[in-house]
Design a protein that fits this description.
Elements (H helix, E strand, L loop, with lengths): L1 E2 L2 E4 L4 H6 L3 H7 L6 E5 L2 H6 L4 E2 L5 H20 L12 E11 L5 E12 L6 E6 L1 H4 L15 H18 L4
Parallel strand pairs: 3-4
Antiparallel strand pairs: 1-2, 2-3, 5-6, 6-7
């Protein structure tokens, strides 16, 4: 529920709370409460309002929800995604890389995300690399529901062609 610019979470579903029941989870992130009367995702608002719970990376509810999403959709994620230009004007490929650094315990100490774009793949391939695309790009929301399924064998065979073109013509940034 949204009240006075803050969010009230009246009830955290048990399937989310159950994720946080392990000792390892509690030691790392803390306890997920059954309800949160006043929360925000905005750090500035949280610091100005000490009675408001700030939810972000590392917060028990946020981490439990991320784990639930990953567990529920990990098979779908393994299939990958295909982004299509509905105007058929663009020719290229995009992909994301996530790089992690782990500490001596195996815990993630840092994470970076990069967006790689190969434009003009058929004629003159050019590679563009964007670090932290969510911070450095301003996407416009356009909702269109289209689903494409590409068999694994097909895209695995095509990837070699892209790399050959990049190597042959050189990557330009």
């Amino acid at each position: 529920t949204l009240k006075q610019g803050f969010i009230t979470i009246d009830s955290v579903p048990y399937k989310i709370r159950r994720i946080a029941e392990s000792v390892e989870f509690k030691n790392r992130y803390g306890v997920v409460m059954k309800r949160y009367p006043k929360v925000t995702f905005d750090k500035d608002i949280a610091f100005k309002n000490p009675n408001v719970e700030f939810i972000s990376f590392g917060h028990p509810l946020f981490e439990a929800l991320l784990k639930w999403i990953f567990d529920k959709f990990k098979e779908e994620v393994k299939k990958g995604a295909l982004f299509k230009d509905p105007s058929a004007k663009l020719d290229g490929y995009i992909w994301f890389y996530i790089g992690e650094v782990k500490d001596g315990k195996g815990d993630v100490a840092g994470r970076r995300i990069w967006l790689y774009v190969v434009a003009n793949a058929a004629t003159n391939p050019t590679l563009h690399i964007i670090n932290n695309p969510w911070e450095n790009l301003n996407p416009q929301e356009k909702v269109e529901v289209v689903r494409f399924v590409v068999p694994t064998d097909e895209w695995k065979n095509k990837k070699q062609e892209v790399w050959k073109k990049i190597i042959l013509y050189g990557a330009r940034t």
